[in-house]
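Entry 12.
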Amino acid sequence: MRKELNTSKYNFKSIIEKNCMYVDKTENLYRLVSKSDGQFFLSRPRRFGKSLTLSTLESFFSGNKELFKGLYIYDKNDIEWRKYSIIKLAFNGMSSSTEEELNINLCRTLDKFAKRADIEIVKDEIASLKFKDLIEELAYKNGQVVILIDEYDKPILDNILNTDEVYKIRTFLKKFYGIIKAMEEHLRFTFITGVSKFTQVSVFSDLNNLDDITMDQRYSTICGFTQEECEKYFAEWIDENAIKNNMSKFDYLNKLRIMYNGIRFSKKAITLYNPVSFTKTMDQGNFDYYWFATGTPTFLLRLLKKMNYDITTFEGLKLKASMFSSYEIENISAEALLYQTGYLTIKDYNESNDVYMLSYPNNEVKTAFIEYLTAYFTPVENNQIPTLLDYLVEGLTENDLEKVFNKVLKVFYAKIEYDIKLKHEKYYQTIFYIIFMMLGVRVKTEVKTNDGRMDAVVKTDTHIYIFEFKLDKSTQEALNQIKEKEYFNKYLLDKRTLVLVGVNFDSLTGEISEWKTITKKK
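Predicted 3D structure (tokens):
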């Protein structure tokens, strides 16, 4: 009987009982649960299978062996199938806009655990005290306890830009998670998931016995689907969707790879599909931005703008391994956060200097993220985009920059809210980059030459455009800089027409005040 595709269930028991598709990840889980006192942490992006992983562990430690029939772990004789008391906390479903609200909701959740277990815990309305008492009472009644915590860091990320409140929440969580280390003699197994890793939260300072498997090669495929898994478990849907899209199976698989594959979590070059995106494209048969439809990265966009981060460097970032491990609220690493949230991924690793190269993982993430950046920085209506794209492509192909500037660029810059029009050239260069990338045009910024850096280079099949931006100066000064520094030298052997473009912005209006071009003779 053909299994049902699961696009909304993240409960292992429900998936198995309703004969839904489950990609067997129990070989990874077997390595975890076979340890007598495992304490683990796993960081993965949102909607990447963390909740299902915890739910699978919950079923295992509930002793529900029959649910695992046919899976890797079922016939393993060196593990014990027994029922443990389980405390499972899901912060992704818990409101936490303030420390007080977080404490109230946690207290209510812990009281419900105690009521279901028919035990009494302290009446104090302090979550950490209730947590400690609950563990002790459960252990006294039933033996060692299992703790499963999903999205431990959501209260922090939800309040990351509210400085006063996020410090209170961090202190609160430090006390709460510190209970786990204090109670380790009563614990059989602990598994904590999150998007990020903050050093100042007790999980990673006081709780130093926690084994971080985030970038451990042995667990790199614990969440997400490998290429082999996709072709094994979804073979029928792949064949059907290839026909539906009028493609050969080879071409269809290749497009799936470009669109959804490429996410990597270790030095080992194993790449993964986001399970939400892949399953939904199998179910619906269309190529779409499914992962982004599950949630807008508003907090990340706000943070990048607050930090004045140079988003033009996203493709080709190089980071030392130490930058992945953790960071602090006071000094957030945008690069680490972009990686941990899934908007950038590992593209290469240089063992000789322990440096990782990051970039967008695939077309889904790149295209959708750039669209969000565009909407966030330049609020142009979505229904305008196709027309603007046509104008931009036509103008660049025909070397009709009148159309490019007057019908496209001026529309975008005019719609930028006045209070975010920053008074420096880099900002306008960034907006330029976002616009061109969002509209599918090849653009590079800060291109190195022997004598400096070009602000932007745009290439079409027929032309190469070298842009130089100025603020409250003159377009002639911009063109003179291109000529004096001979930015064009590296393209002189290229057969395409070379066009030099000087652009000036007015800092008072934030708009393009003048532009001028010269076609370079070779």
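Annotation: The longest helix spans residues 163-182. The CA atoms of residues 121 and 152 lie 23 Å apart.
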